[in-house]
Each structure stands twice: as C-alpha cells, then as structure tokens.
Amino acid sequence: FVFGPGMSYGVTYYISYVVGDNLNGSPDPNDPCLSVAQGQPVTFFDNPVANAGTDGSGCGLTLSLNGTAVSGAVLWTVASTPPGGNAVVANPQSASSSVTVNQFGAYTFTCTVTVNGCTGSDDVVLNFNASPAAGPVSFQCDGANLNYTVSFPI
C-alpha cells in the first residue's frame, strides 16, 4: 500500500486484506466465501522541508545561522569543520542561532526538521574569516614637497 494520486496527507485511511475466489487478479466480490479483515488505520504525513539558509561569510569567530522551518522540531548539527576546528551552536533547537568556532575556515552545518516522525534536512556552509587589519602607516613626500603619499598594508 503506497501513497498515491488522489490521496491527501494527514488523512486516515484504512487498509484491509480481502480473500476470495480469483477474478482477473483480484478477489471476486460475488464470492459467497469472500472475507474482509478489519481495517488497519494508516495516516501519511508529508516529509518536512528544512531550509538552512544561504551559504555565507563573515569576519570573526561568531556568525549567525538563519534557517527556516514551517513547523516541527529543529536541530542544528555540525557536519564538517576544518582540521582542528570546533563549533558550538548557541541554541541548536532554534531555526536561527549564533554559532562560535575556535578557528577560521569553512564549516558546514545541517538543519534537520522533524514532524510526525518524518525528517528533512539541509546544509549551509559558513566561512569564518579573520578581520582585516591595517598595518603601520608610512608617509612620503616628494623632493619638491608637491606630492604627499600615504600608504599602509592590509
């Protein structure tokens, strides 16, 4: 028995087995010995759709996870880290949460949504980058004192 055309999610259907004389591959409804078992209730639920948000980058060791879930229980997990990396999701059971890592690099996080025992998941990659910093400023004036140059490395 499968979910088929014309059926709806969340509706209870009753499945029974039927025994009787063979009529072109199905039990003959006119068979006087036809037997129908009591129906077993079955309800089909649609698989939930998780949305982990868009991949992103930011400066520093703390960024935000911005997933969405229409309904159900949300759980964020760490799917991958750079070698030696560690990540902590502040509120792993919330669609949106901050996440803090111990080193810069690309981290993959999985958002899993569970509804009625069915799950859906989606991944997002966050790149944690070091903040740019300006180096020492150097000043230079030409010999005629007409042009002044300021430079600094980033």
> How large is the count of helical segments?
0
Write the element-wise H/E pattern from the N-terminal end onward. Answer: EEEEEEEEEEEEEEE
Q: Major sheet: size, sense and barrel closure?
A: 4 strands, mixed
Radius of gyration: 31 Å
Give the N-to-C terminal Cα separation.
Answer: 65 Å
Briefly, what is this?
This protein is mainly beta. The chain is built from no helices and 15 strands. Helix content is 0%, strand content 47%.
Descriptive notes:
The strands form six sheets. Strands 7-13-12-9 form a four-stranded mixed sheet, with no helix packed on it. It has a three-stranded antiparallel sheet with strand order 8-11-10, with no helix packed on it. The protein has strands spanning 12-15, 18-19, 22-23, 26-27, 35-36, 40-43, 56-59, 62-66, 73-80, 87-89, 96-101, 105-115, 118-129, 138-141, 148-151. With 154 residues, the protein is mostly beta strands. It is rod-shaped and about 115 Å long. A hairpin with a 2-residue loop joins strand 12 (105-115) and strand 13. 0% of the residues lie in helices and 47% in strands. The model has no long low-confidence stretch (mean pLDDT 91). The chain is built from no helices and 15 strands. It starts with 11 loop residues before the first strand and ends with a strand.
Q: Topology, pairings included?
A:
Layout: E1 12-15, E2 18-19, E3 22-23, E4 26-27, E5 35-36, E6 40-43, E7 56-59, E8 62-66, E9 73-80, E10 87-89, E11 96-101, E12 105-115, E13 118-129, E14 138-141, E15 148-151
Parallel strand pairs: 7-13
Antiparallel strand pairs: 1-6, 2-5, 3-4, 8-11, 9-12, 10-11, 12-13, 14-15
